[in-house]
Amino acid sequence: MTRSPNSDPILRTEHLGRVVNEKILVEDVTFEVRTGEVLAIVGPSGAGKSSLLRLLNRLDEPTSGTVYLEGTDYRQIAPRELRRKLGMVNQRPFLFPGTVEQNLQFGPLQRGESLSKDSVEELLGRVGLQGYSSRNVANLSGGEAQRVSVARTLANSPLVLLLDEPTSALDQTSKLEVESTIQTIVRDQGLTCILVTHDTAQAARLAGCALVLESGRVVRNGPTNEVLHA
Amino acid sequence: MLKLMFSNQLYLVLAQALVAAGAAGVVVLLAHKRGIHLESETLVAMLRGIIQIIAVGSVLLLLLRAPRWTSVFLLAAMIVAAGATSARRAKGMPGAFRVSAWSIAFGSGSVIAIMTWLGVIDTAITSLVPVGSMLITNAMNTNGLALNRFRSDVVAHVGEIETALALGADAKHSVAPYSQAAFESSLIPAIDSLRSLGIVWIPGLMAGMLLSGARPMYAAIYQFVVLAMIFAASGLTSLVSTLLIRDGIFTAAQQLSLQPGR
After folding, report:
1. Which residues from chain A sit within 8 angstroms of residue B177, using beta carbons?
2. Which of A75, A88, A92 minimises the CB distance to B166?
3. ipTM score of the complex?
4. What does the pLDDT look like over A151-200, one tens digit per residue?
5. Are A186 and A206 in contact (CB under 8 A)?
């Protein structure tokens, strides 16, 4: 996949907001991401970063505004198809009991498809875990489990990868492993990516653009160097 | 000893009730000493129990001369009450009463109807209502266990469920393991009752039949018949409720609405 940062936005939000029991989680968030771009969403704890990512994946329903995926209002896309296209990786991997391969097959099986052995190995190669397909997920380290979680999401061939603090629950060694995996995927393979992180150094290492959230609102948005050093 | 003290049957049974309630009171006292406060809940439950059973006894007395079809209304009222009681075990789950009432109605209603049609349950009110109420009560308990287990499993596994949804899984598929576990665990009491029948316990129905002069072999086999019907009614109820309740915890956009603290 090649990067084409000047193309039409693959994902665009318009005045996106969510209020629950009169508490504002996300308010009036408007931004866009172009194909091949990596956008970091940064901000302090409770700023609404993860809430925003859940809205993008439609795990929660916006109370105002909407999201456009490839120009289509995402409410017009079937939720299952939308979630396949906007692949999400959580802070914790939540692997399903069984082998690594069974986890990778989960997404495709939901559409009645299955991955060949070669495809499984190719996916594991992308996250640096060749030869792990028959391993039981119970025996993986934290970093390995998170990389399997990334590969499992990639098995759905998403248009955009949503990463919700993917390294925050890991020790330093595992954190570097996972970050290196993400770097390979987003830089070398040109996958469009939205990364939620509270670590501004990580945002600077991985993302070309950044959006700073505070109390659910966008306070800065633009190239990472300008936004994070403002 | 009580029989020596009371010659009147009414006074005797009231004294027996007091003694039995006293035994329950001892448990409440022991629990109190361990810092577990069951006082008000137990008192209310016992008062409700005695009032309700006396009321049912009185209704049965009136119904003895009523047409047989009136038992249908009595059983229907029991199903509605069972649905309301059982739904309390599914706190915070949308549609719990509707799901409970339909599930108990389907599970116990179909078994009562088929067994009555086949002649396993006698159509006389004095037989149909007590046996029917046993099936409804057990269906209610099973339904409560199933909903309670399902609810706690879902709340404890929100991450896994939303991960499955995020990977494109159908809402029903994402909670299938918890629905299955709820069904299995809800049937443990019914299975254990069948398994331990006659070894660990002699159920009330059989004891009552023996006391009223029925032949032991007939009483024993009929008790098995009732327990098998209870298992069937409970199993059907749990099967239906664990299927129906899944729909209630998701929005139309397949978002999990049952979340911890919500």
Report:
1. none
2. A88
3. 0.91
4. 999 999 999 999 999 888 788 888 888 888 888 887 777 889 999 998 89
5. yes
